[in-house]
Each structure stands twice: as C-alpha cells, then as structure tokens.
Known about the structure:
Blueprint: E1 8-11, E2 25-28, E3 44-47, E4 56-58, E5 62-66, H1 71-75, H2 85-91, H3 96-104, H4 109-114, H5 117-123, H6 129-136, E6 140-144, E7 150-154, E8 159-161, E9 164-165, E10 172-179, H7 180-183, E11 186-193, E12 200-208, E13 214-219, E14 226-230, H8 236-244, H9 259-284
Parallel strand pairs: 1-3, 2-3
Antiparallel strand pairs: 4-5, 5-10, 6-7, 6-10, 8-9, 11-12, 12-13, 13-14
The protein binds flavin-adenine dinucleotide (FAD).
Amino acid sequence: xxxxxxxxxxxxxxxxxxxxxxxxxxxxxxxxxxxxxxxxxxxxxxxxxxxxxxxxxxxxxxxxxxxxxxxxxxxxxxxxxxxxxxxxxxxxxxxxxxxxxxxxxxxxxxxxxxxxxxxxxxxxxxxxxxxxxxxxxxxxxxxxxxxxxxxxxxxxxxxxxxxxxxxxxxxxxxxxxxxxxxxxxxxxxxxxxxxxxxxxxxxxxxxxxxxxxxxxxxxxxxxxxxxxxxxxxxxxxxxxxxxxxxxxxxxxxxxxxxxxxxxxxxxxxxxxxxxxxxxxxxxxx
Length: 285
Ligand SMILES: Cc1cc2nc3c(=O)[nH]c(=O)nc-3n(C[C@H](O)[C@H](O)[C@H](O)COP(=O)(O)OP(=O)(O)OC[C@H]3O[C@@H](n4cnc5c(N)ncnc54)[C@H](O)[C@@H]3O)c2cc1C
C-alpha cells in the first residue's frame, strides 16, 4: 500500500547515511511489513538494501548473516550468494533450520525474495520463525548504534514481547552471527497450526551440540522465543518438567491459538523434538 505519511526515502550507501534513523525516520528493508499497513508515526524512511552487505559470509567464528539477507537467500532458494548454501548444509547440519523456518512463515515466494532476516528479527513477532531459528542456533545480533559504536546482544535476549525488542531509537541491526558449534549441531524442527495453511500456533526447534549440550527453543506459542537449556539430551519427563515451569503469562493469546492449547501442543512438540535428538544420539553409538 502507499504510505501517505512518508515525505522522503533515503537510499543509504554507507554507514554515515544511517545517522538520520530514529524518531519519525524508520528503517526500510524488504518493506513486506512496512508497506502492509499504515505507518502513521513515520514521515521518512532509510532504505538499507543498497548498502551492499554480503548476504552470507563464512567467518572464523561461524556464519555472518547480513540483516539484509533475504529469506530466499537464507533458505537456499536465491541466487548470487557469496557462499553456496548446499555446500554449507553438508558440513553444517545446523543450517537445516534455515529453510525449515522460512517455510514456517505464511508467505508467498514473492515475499520470500523480498523479506529480510533483519526485518523478521526486528519485527519481533511471536510468528517470527526465522528469528526463532536463529535463537535456536544461539546466534548473536550485531547492532550499529547512532553514535558510531557497535554492540552485540545474544539473540535470545533481543525480543522483549510481541513486536518489542531491545533496539533503541536510531539503532540498526547489522548482522546475525551463528557460532560454529551451532552450525555443527544436529537440529530438529516441529510446527503446528490450527489450520493446514494457517499461521503457526507453536514451533519448537532443538539443537544438540557435538559435546552433547542441548537446547529446545519454543516460539509462536509464546510472546517471545523461550530457550530451555539442558546439559545433555533431555528425556520425556525432563522436557515435560521444563515446559511446565515456563512462566504462565508467556503463553501467547491470539486468533491462531489459545494460551492453554499452545502450552499443551508446545509440550507435545518439545517432546517430539527431544525424542528425535535422542534417536540420533543412539544411532551414533
Ligand atoms: C503475506 C505475509 C505473510 C507474513 N508472514 C509472516 C509470518 O508468518 N511471521 C512473521 O514474523 N512475519 C510475517 N510477515 C511479516 C514480514 O513480511 C516478515 O516478518 C519479514 O521478514 C519482514 O522483513 P522485511 O525486510 O520485509 O521488513 P520491513 O517491512 O522492511 O521492516 C520490518 C520492521 O523491521 C524494521 N527493520 C528492518 N530491518 C531493520 C534493521 N536492519 N535494523 C533495524 N530495524 C529494521 C523496520 O523499520 C520495520 O519496523 C508476513 C508478511 C506478509 C506480507
């Protein structure tokens, strides 16, 4: 839709061009959310899509995903990548969550090619499955502050509630860094929705690292991604106990599922994810 409050769109070419972000000047990435409803509080946008950030970069520590990386690029459906995603998948089983989480979004291929990872993270919706996958992979966010400094935030601490996160006025998400131990981890994914093509009611993603440590991340069912950490792959009773101990006020309530239903199905999915990760442990022995 046309945003009739917008008077100016600036195409950023370098970091200095981001100095105007803040207040009534918003960040424009893919625009799939921004142009979907009125943005009364904004009169100016800074388009970050021409900053030339490589979508996916292998680093010594792991994988850097630019905020402007599209969902198509992340899932391996896009072209022109710096790093072959197929190649990554063979070496890094953890990347299986990329495509699985992109598919969990209720979106067309047109949206996939335009929507960005940074937009999904910064929108901070419970249904932000890509955000959830990156939390499940224990990623960090690199944030550019308006005074020219940078700060790093564990992504599990980024979201405060539905549509709310730790970014302050003028801050821009630059990238998400997935550590190498998570890329080497085995993962499992489960999703449920009230309708076959409906928005996710609950998504659970599991990660089992090479040293045996395990984490289950619950999203869509909760107001923010919830991470349950375990020293080893948890048994069914341990999973049930951990899900039961989640603060009851965190179960999300909207037309895509009531809180009690979400708590129940998240528990079932978490049990299934843990069982899949346990099976792999057995297979390796
Ligand atoms: C049909 C349809 C289905 C959708 N389904 C889902 C769904 O299932 N789950 C879901 O979570 N979302 C969904 N969305 C919403 C949205 O499309 C996605 O979350 C998408 O990933 C947002 O990315 P974008 O690049 O288009 O963000 P934009 O629309 O450009 O921006 C989204 C918000 O993030 C801010 N922002 C973007 N990038 C940055 C950055 N680098 N630093 C700081 N702020 C930034 C923007 O200012 C804006 O407030 C859907 C949208 C459509 C149209």
